[in-house]
Amino acid sequence: MNASTATRRAVLKSGVAALVLGFAVPATVRHAAASTGGELGAWLEITADGKVRIAQPQSEMGQGIWTSMAQLIAEELEVDWEDVEIFSPIAGAAFNHPFYGFQTTAESFSIRAFWEPARQVGAKAREMLKRAAAERWGVYPGGLQARSGSIVNPLTGQSLAYGVLVSEAAKYPAPDNVQLKRPDEWRIIGRSVGRNDTPAKLDGSAIYGTDVRVEGMLTAVPVFPPSFTGKVRSIDDAAARAISGVRHIVSLENVVYVVADSFWPATKGAAALSVDWDLGDAADLSTAAVRRDLRDAVANQRGKPVEEVGDIEAATSSAARIVEVTLEAPYLAHATMEPMNTTAHYTPDKLTIWSPTQAQGLMGFVAGAVGLDGSQVECHTTFLGGGLGRRFEIDLPIHAARVSKEVGAPVQVMWSREDDMRGGFYRPAAAARLRAAIDADGMVTGFDGALACPSILARAVPDLAKGDIDHTSVDGVAEGKSPAGVPFHRQYEFGAASRVVYAMENRAIPVGFWRSVAHSQNAWFMEGFVNEIARETNQDPVALRMKLMKSDRNRTVLERLAERAGWGSPAAGHHQGIAIHEAFGTVLGNVFEIAVEGNAIRLVKVTSVADVGHAVHPDTIEAQMVSGAITGITASLWGEVTMQKGRVDQGNFDTYRMLTLAETPEFDVEILQLGGPVGGIGEPGTPPVAPALVHAVQNATGKTIRSLPLTASGFDLA
Amino acid sequence: MSIAFTVNGSRVSVDSDPDTPLLWVLRDTLALTGTKYGCGIAACGSCTVHIDGAAVRTCVLPVSAVADRDVRTIEGLSADGTHPVQQAWRDLDVPQCGYCQSGMIMAASALIAESPDPSDDEIDRVMTNICRCGTYPRVRAAIHRAVRGDA
Q1: C-alpha angle A661/A618/B128, rounded to 5°?
Q2: What is the pLDDT of residue A36?
Q3: Can you spell out the DSSP letters for A386-407?
Q4: ipTM confidence score
């Protein structure tokens, strides 16, 4: 069953006469679709009573994409927002991401990538509806207007609702060229309409992955080895099988699943299961050893050059002085509120997946893992109880599919909080040694940088980590392009000479995409470094940045931030810190205002200013800026995953602390719309948090802080 | 073992091991999936329901403890989503991913039932649920709005 028939059936079942408005997908999407066998249409349905059902293929994990994607389509379609319904379609090639070429939600790249294609979807449908009306009235479509779900002939006053035109409109080919509305004509883009996903999230009716219920479904709970290289040697399952409700024990080599009628007996079975593990090479691995290796790599400038301009040796040897810092960041867990889960039903000719996934387009690999073809998988996307990058991984879908095949029934794989915390794919630990050559006037004349961290791409997408260079690991610190052809960018110009080397230090600890990826550590490195240059050279951190920034856009954001936050004049007894970063097409700066007594910090206020080019839904952007900041605050204060002998120490929220309501500061967010390309919003809020907060603590205490989290330096909240 | 109690106004009787946490009886036996599992150690509050009107975390509460008591879940907070807390949550678009919000709403509705116009200090003390999205500023504003009718 493809997406079109699925939605048709759903509509027929509801008893509403309707037709799927099928038309060619935008050119950028069509190219990608063709390469994977593709299908057309499936974006829109208009019912006879005028309701507009918009498919929303991007994963809703809190960022508000459910609503803002539909706003783009509804704007061009000329319908009233009140008539819009949104649904999560079965995954299909029609929904391939225009940039990545497969259906996915990642890198704050939904609105940015669909900015034009989604509006084209609405505009093409609008023109097809006009043509249907024109045929009826025997006039040229050019003179007709689309208004609030109807086509209107302004000369005659005639009007026909979309619902009566849709079946005729669907017969026409989609026009190639359509005129998109000018920003001054927008009625829905830029408006903070009520979020379409809110009502279901207030009465328990929203379905997350863990809420999927399939007839005959069993629940599978994992037992992991205490090592990332562990493999099953033997299993003693007598005690587990004795527990009422336990049905099967399934070994997948590096994890064993206890399968039961429901979660609780499965959990009891997992606790009773005895597994003899071969722990493998990583049995003695510790994060302390990895961190030491990273420091060693940057101290010795090991690795591959990723940026080399001018003569950095000459620049440093002739400098009046050198400012140098070595900064570190720990491994971090995602800890999404909804623990990891996926439901799968394997049959010999079809695999059905229900998952809170960010990677629908990778489900062909999941089919492959159970001996099926990519065309034999059907993926339903539920709401995601947070994604944060963890749900780009397809380990859960693969486990669910394999266990379902093994037991011959639909299976929901369900990890506990501890399984999630210890199950891998962490934000990599990282180290940076950054040096600036400074002349007698305090100007930066050269930049010599060294970065070291495990590579996410070397594990997840090796083709993008050619030459042992992972662009995501250096983005924000270095300027250039990876051997795989992907650019990276730094917002500062550091004189005529610059050199950055990157040491890819891969280890057995699985690393993955975490909210803002390496910007989460690289903003801390770069902004911590710039604040250090300012301090060492007695310059104001804002004035120094104004001199170093490459772009007027960044200067505009910084100026506005300094003004709004009252930079340089905190309230009596308070201290400020500042940082600004460019990532995912957005420039965002923070000023933290805090009070400190001894080692006890009180967060008073966070002022954020961001330029997003155009704001589709300002209220959601504000929410995401606050959300990104709270993720960053939590990580800066307490975030650290450690391992002693092969096993992660943290397990639950008692050992991996989260910010609470009472600890949350006041937020003041200003969204600028400087009119450039639209920027992402899900991730840019996180990177400039750690450096701004640490800057404020250093300004308050005079202490030097070179490593995160702040608790490692003896600080904590009051 | 058969344990009888009231859920959202209806009398139910379940056959469960008495040590099964109420959370899993609600989710897996009674198909009330609005109440969420987040941590299993009563740290996050995603599993909060009302028991005889008080907010209780159910992931560590054995079902035997609610025999003959009155349990209310997010599905039964109001017939049509119009409880003042739900209304305020809707007005301010509080949820992001939304996973913690059932528990957050149950905690907030129990708070205002007991304290009709809670101070910020009371909100700080009572609203200890964890939200990974960081909806906290809006949660606070929505609680005030639910009782005062403003933001």
Answers
A1: 10
A2: 23
A3: --TTGGG--HHHHHHHHHHHHH
A4: 0.98
